[in-house]
Design a protein that fits this description.
The structure is a homodimer. Chain A is an alpha/beta fold and about 325 residues long. Chain A has twelve helices and twelve strands. Helix content of chain A is about 45%, strand content about 15%. At the A-B interface, α4, α5, β2, α6 and α11 of A face α4, α5, β2, α6 and α11 of B. Chain A binds a DNA duplex (16 and 16 nucleotides) through α2 and α4.
DNA sequence: TTGAAAGCGCTACCAA
DNA sequence: TTGGTAGCGCTTTCAA
């Protein structure tokens, strides 16, 4: 078995309490005693049992992250930033993948609750707020990326309607007149980016047409294939769109393939813009214009918020932190 | 505070032990009692405190994963597969990023040890085996991707020398004669892929030349930039290489940029192959030939191995599980 | 079938 | 400055 405080106490003829104090840098311990303890701790390579400590203090120094897909670069980036930020404060990160399945998400959240995490960060895959009231009562939790309107919760994300506006306006600015949209699901990001798209068309005197909007259910997990398929449908619209705003970058990458397979040019025949600004957008067959979502900042802010909430004496009212999306222009919309 | 077993016991006039038995499906509880308990558990949305349970049973149902970089698609894929596989058995995954820093890795491992994880999966960033003996004694742990020769540990990864051989042989087969290598660091993957490269040159009657091998220290974290820079150096060699094997795909992507910036064609002037077979290799400016590392299988196998070791009565001797790397040919080496 | 007692490894509190 | 006692929420053991 692993060494315990009791073992060290016995070795040195001290009490467990004294050992505990030394390890927590409690002031009232004699200098000589402290040194003896620390020496023995080092010799035995002793590690205090955090489980036992947590049981007493009620703090687990554990933060949970629940995302739809760990592999999606956006969430991977959030995870990395979050992990780095909390690690330096002695916290560890438990990750959990909901696979875009609300039921699985619910089970994972319950499982994590049983672990008595100090906080949870969730990019929820659900569209309604049912069942979230349990969380709300006790836990420190923060929603990221996807908002759940109606739920009084902390939220960090970009202004998704603005993202839709900026992307669509950019396409208009470079001369597109028949602008299509491969949209996201019925969650806040999908709906708001679509709203931004539609409103911008109208505000700029362009017609909104249903047949220029493609909705697919698996846009988050099967993005490449779904993007290619959606684009193939759009290519058969008459007249053919001359610009496409895609809900996310992987969809756009799939769309690139379909456009090129059809022998058309990007951006001359069809201009294309995505959302997410993934690392490798620059290296694609056609470097992809995109809207930056500040994934790293979201992770970092989530960490700061969560840590401050944990330390807080009383829970402040939930707030939303909305970051501004940013246009990144690359070849896929760069017309001469 | 959260509900406890004691609360339920008091409510129903039962003892804590009975509640505990019901929750663990212990057989000797009366049917009626069981139902009453379950009903109350549901009403209160009770979650047993895993911390407390772990303290008694010595099992935390927690698995740790320590990787150099969570953002690297290879490790993200491993993380996802691992997480999915253990989640279904009631385990959770704690992730930790070592940022390619051996000291940070050591601190993270210690931190995780204090949490009494049931097992740890490590893609170690160190080149020697110092300090690993502590781990060895008590913990269930599995190395992935990067082997530490000399350490009697479970290991799962591909045959990296074979990866180097296959990539180099492929370049030879398509007609390259001056084959360069942008190599990895001094860990098992870097060394072995390089060995495979060198041996294959010699075995095929080609000269091995030091100036065709570029070593950079930040190939794992700054891959794109490092790859571009290394390629620029190679372009100035005389005679210029006509084929390049890159330690990983991101390096190769950086290399693509330098080659095209120099006005050269891929693969006609210079053929290029990477390693990793990342998801988006297909969608790059020049679709990239690569060596598949079976990241998902590695994560899955790691999960299986770790779970079996946790359950095992006595610890079996450590084993290595070596997967066969696979050539994936794309445009970057497809010559007519 | 049920439950009382002991204890997992630690910290909080208060007395010496 | 040091340590005894109690207890965190649970499981294990064994007696009723």
């Amino acid at each position: 078995m692993a060494t315990r405080m009791k073992d060290i106490a016995n070795d040195l003829g001290l009490s467990v309490v004294t050992i505990s104090k030394v390890l927590r840098n409690h002031p009232d311990v004699g200098e000589e005693t402290r040194e003896r303890v620390l020496r023995r701790v080092k010799e035995l390579n002793y590690q205090p049992n955090i489980l036992a400590r947590s049981l007493v203090t009620g703090r687990s120094y554990l933060v949970g992250l629940v995302v739809p897909d760990l592999l999606h670069p956006f969430f991977a980036e959030v995870a990395k930033a979050l992990s780095t930020a909390i690690q330096s404060k002695g916290y560890s990160l438990i990750v959990s993948s909901s696979e875009e399945d609300p039921e699985l998400e619910q089970r994972e959240i319950r499982q994590l609750q049983a672990r008595r995490l100090d906080a949870m960060v969730i990019a929820s895959t659900r569209t309604g707020i049912a069942d979230f009231d349990q969380l709300q009562k006790e836990e420190v939790f923060v929603l990221i990326d996807r908002d759940l309107p109606g739920l009084a919760a902390n939220y960090i994300g970009i202004d998704d309607e603005a993202a839709g506006r900026i992307a669509t306006k950019h396409l208009i600015d470079i001369g597109c007149r028949r602008i299509a949209h491969i949209r996201g699901r019925e969650n806040s990001t999908g709906v708001r980016r679509f709203d931004g798209y539609r409103k911008t068309l109208i505000a700029n005197g362009l017609e909104y047409r249903d047949e220029y909007v493609i909705a697919r259910s698996r846009v988050d997990t099967q993005s490449l294939e779904q993007g290619a398929e959606a684009m193939r449908l759009l290519l058969h619209r008459n007249p053919r769109p001359d610009g496409v705003f895609c809900y996310n970058d992987p969809l756009a990458i799939g769309a690139i393939r379909s456009i090129m397979d059809a022998g058309l040019r990007i951006p001359e025949d069809i201009a294309l813009i995505g959302c997410g600004n993934l690392h490798y957008d620059d290296c694609l067959r056609v470097p992809l214009s995109s809207i930056d979502q500040h994934s790293q900042q979201i992770g970092q802010r989530a960490a700061e918020l969560v840590l401050s909430l944990i330390e807080a004496k009383q829970r402040p009212l939930p707030r939303s932190y909305i970051l501004n999306p940013e246009l990144v222009v690359r070849a896929s919309t760069r017309r001469l």
